[in-house]
Amino acid sequence: MAVNLEPDRALLTDGTVVAVRELGAGDVGALLVLHESLPLEDRYLRFFTTSPRQLEDFVSRMATPDDPNHVTVGAFRDGRLLGAASYIVLDVPTQAEVALVVSHAEQAHGVGTLLLERLCSLAVRRGLRRFVADVMTINSRMLHVFTNMGLVWTVTADSDVVHVDLGLEPVDTYLDAVADRELTAEVQSLRAVLKPTSIVVIGASRKETGVGNALLRNLVAGDFAGDLYAVNPHATSVAGVACYASIAEVPDVPELAVLCVPADKVPAAAEQCGRRGVKALVVITAGVTEHPELARGLMTAVCEHGMRVVGPNCLGVSSGEPGVSMNATFARTRTNTGDVGVVTQSGGIAIAVVERLRRIGLGTSNLVSTGDKYDVSGNDLLLWWERDEHTRAVVLYLESFGNPRKFARLARRVARRKPVLAIRSASSEAGQRAAASHTAATATPAITRDALFRQAGITAVDGVAELVDVLAALHGQPLPDGRSVAVLSNAGGLGVLAADACVHNGLEVAELSSATIAALRALLPATASTRNPVDTTAVVDERTFARCLDAVAADPGVDAVIVVTVPTALGDPASGVHPVEGKPVLAVDAGQVAAVESGPVPSYTDPAQAAAVLARLAERAGWLARPAGGDELDGIDLDRARAVVARHLEDDHGDGWLAPDQVVELLSAFGLPVLGGVVTTTAEATASAQRGFGCPVVLKAIAVDLLHKSKGGGVVLDLETPEAAADAFSRFRALFGDRLRGAFVQPMAGRGRELLVGVVNDQEFGPLVVTGLGGIDTDLVDDRAAALAPLSAADADDLLHGFRAAEEVFLDVAEAPVRDVLLRVAKLAELVPEIAELDLNPVIATDERCQVVDARVRIEPASPVDPYLRGLRAKGQE
C-alpha cells in the first residue's frame, strides 16, 4: 500500500499548528535524530534499555514504505519531527503492536494523542481491530495517554510490564474524547482571531473609500483594547494609527494581521506575516480564489508558518467580549455588543443580521465572516462557542458543508448547551437526483440538509427576519414543556387567527380547565368568550387583562400563551402583558411599528409570526427532552456482511446491484427479517422450488436493466402449483429474452401494511435513511420521512412518525418491529459504506411483526473516510 506523504495540518493542545503525515524512507534521518535526542530516562521507557542496539536499522524499518504491515505517522513543526507513532501487524491480521515516541520537550502538548488518533484512523481503514502494547509500569505518562484516548481498553499487569489491549472501534467515548481535545486546541488557536492582543492592518489606504481605511477606522472607533498598527509604505499614519512600510518594520509582532491588499499581493503579504511570527490572518481581499496560483501561494504561507486564516473574500471579524472590543470589519454600522455568536459565509448576510439585531436591542459576542472559507469554518466556531460563557445563542449561515458528519456531532454538543440557529440557503441542485431507486429519488440536497439540522438540534429558519423573530423569543422566554397553547385577546377575530396559526404550525389549542374558565368568568363581562381562544372584549382595562393572563397561564394544561392586543379608545391592554414564571408568553400588538420588539415579553405585529416562533421553541424543547442514546442491536454479523460485499466487488462487472440471494444474505447478517427464496435458471428448477416450498409462491425475474420489477412485468404472484411456476418462468423467457438471468422464487408473504425503508449514501453527508408508504403507494403518494445515519432511538421514532400517513398506519401496525428495521438498516449503512442504495419495498408490517418481502441493494467501491479525524481545513475540505 502506497505511503501518503502529503501532510495534513492539525492543532496541538496549546493551539500551535503541526503537519501530520505518514513517514517514508526519506524520514529515516529525522527519526534517528528524534530517538537520539531522547534523554536516558525516555530511552529506557521506550526500549526497556538505555542503549538500544542497531538503532539505525530499527528506525529504517519504521519508515519502510513498501511494507504495508508496518506504518508510521509523524508530526512536524518548522520541518522538525516532534514525535512518531507506529504499528506493526502481528500474526493475527486484525491486530497490531503500537508504539509511540515524542520529543521530551514536546511532551504534555498533545503530540502523542494526536498521533495515536491518526494511527487508529489509518488502522481501522486498513482492516485492523485492535492495538496491543507492552508498557513499563513506571511509564505513567504513556499509560495516561492510552487512558485519555477514550477507546475501550484492558490492561494486564505482569511484573514490571503492563500489557495494554486497545479496541479500535470509534465508540462514543472515543469520539467525545477527540472532540474535547479538539475543543481545547481550537480555543487556544482561535484566540489570535477572536481575542487578539494586537492587530496590524496591511493595506490601510489613506482614501476613505478604501476597504482598508474603513476597516482601520472601525477598529479605532470601536476602541480596540490592544495595540493597533497599520502598513502603508506611502503614509506615516492613517485614521490616527501609525503606519509602517512593511510588516517587518512594525515594532512588535502582531498576533492578527488583516490583509486588505490587492489579490496579487496576498501571497507575498501572507508569507511576510508568517516570517514575522503573526499567528493569524483575516484576508478581506476578493479575487484570490479565482486564480489558483494565488490560492496556492496563500495556503503555502499559511501551512508553512502554522497560521490560521479567515477568508479570503470576507467582511472580517468582530468581537464584543470584555477586554477586546474589536470591530475588524468594513461594515458601515457598528456592531452592538451582545451574546449572539454569528458565523456566515456571506458578508451581506452578516451585515443584515447585525443590523436587525441592533434594531431590537440585541448584539453579537463574535461575528466571523468566513468568505471563501480556506481555513476557519463553522466547525471551528462551534468549538469556540461551546464553552464560551459570553455567547448564549449561535447563528449559522453556511452555503456549503465541508464535513457534514463532523459538523452534526459538534452542533449537537453545542445545542445541548445553547440554541443554535441556521438560516437555510438555497439547495445546491435544482430538482431531484437522477437515481434508480425510490429512496435515492427522495434524497434532494434540501431534504438531506434539513435532516442534518433536525437531528443535530439546530433551529432552521428561512431568512434573516424569521431568525430575529426567534432570537427575540429565545433571549428572554423559557421553553415550553409541550405544544399546548392558550390564546388571549381583546379582539376576537385576531384571536381566532392566532389559534388557526397555532394549528398550522403543529401546535395544539389547549382545552382550558373548568377552574380556569370559572376564574375568567369572574373577571370578564358576560359578553366575553372564556373558552380558548379567550376573547376578553375591548372594554377590559390593562389590570384585568393582566389578571386574565395569569389565570390562563396557571392552567396545568397550558404550555404557552400567545397574547393578542389592539389599542382602542377605551385603552390599550398591551401594557398589562407580562412574563409568566416557567411558561413562554409571546405578544402580538397590531399597533406597533416594528415587525418585532424584544423585551421581557417579545412582541410581534402578526399572529402568524408569534405562532411560528412558538413552534420553533417547542421544537427545541422537544429535541432537548429526547433520549440521546440508541437501542442495542444483537444478531449482527459484520464479517459475514462484509464478505458478501467483498465477493460482489471482486466478481461484479455490471451495474453494482446485488443478486437476490446476495441481498438476502447481506440483510440476514444484520438480523433483518427478510423473506428468503431460491434463485432458479430453468423452468424445471422453478417448478422444483415451488414444490419444495409447498405453498403459493411469487416469481421475480432477474434480468438486465430490470430495476422496477412490477412495472416491467417481472413479478407473478400466487403460483400455487409447480406447473404454474414453470409456466411463469417460460413467460419471463419470452418477455426478456437474452436479458433474463434467472428468477427468484419466494413463498407468498402474508397481508399487512406495505412500507418502504431505504438508504441512499451521500458522499458528503453519509447514509440517508428514508421511510414511508410502500408497495404501489410509493409511486402514487410522495409521503416519506428521512434521517441521517447513525440513528438514535429518538431519530428512529421521528422517522416512524415523520410521514403524513404515519398516524393512520400505526393504528393497526406495531411500531417496535418497524423501529427495529430502521435501526438495523441504519447500522448496516453506517458499517458497510459500500452500500450506495438500498430499497426494502415492500416491508409488510402487521400488529405483531414486519417482514422484508422485496429488497434491492447497489454496491459501489468506497474509499474509507474518517469524518471525525482532527485536522484543520485546507481549501475545499473541512
From TrEMBL:
Family annotation (CDD domains): NAT_SF
PROSITE patterns registered for this protein in UniProt: GNAT (PS51186)
Domain N-acetyltransferase: 18-186
SMART domains, per database record: CoA_binding
Pfam families referenced in this protein's UniProt entry, alphabetically: Acetyltransf_1 (PF00583), ATP-grasp_5 (PF13549), CoA_binding_2 (PF13380), Ligase_CoA_2 (PF19045), Succ_CoA_lig (PF13607)
Keywords in alphabetical order: Ligase
Domain of life from the UniProt record: Bacteria
Membrane spanning residue stretches: none
InterPro entries: Acyl_CoA_acyltransferase, ATP_grasp_subdomain_1, CoA-bd, GNAT_dom, Ligase_CoA_dom, NAD(P)-bd_dom_sf, Succ_CoA_lig_flav_dom, Succinyl-CoA_synth-like
Molecular-function GO term, any one: ATP binding
Protein name (database record): Bifunctional GNAT family N-acetyltransferase/acetate--CoA ligase family protein
Source organism: Umezawaea endophytica
Species lineage: Bacteria, Bacillati, Actinomycetota, Actinomycetes, Pseudonocardiales
